[in-house]
Amino acid sequence: MFIDLLLIFLMILITYTGWKMIAIGKQESFTNVFTKVTIALGIVMVFLLKYWIALL
Fold it and tell me: Of 17, 32, 35, 43, whose CB has the highest number of CB atoms within 10 Å?
């Protein structure tokens, strides 16, 4: 139950940071804080999904 809520929270967060990343644009795409946060959240989410699938 807890991991489901965590995954939903991460999905909302990654959507928000992704939109911020796109809104700032390409000129500063890799120096942008939101780009780094979005990539980090994506990596965390992959590991959480693997753990969640292993629990099923």
Answer: 17
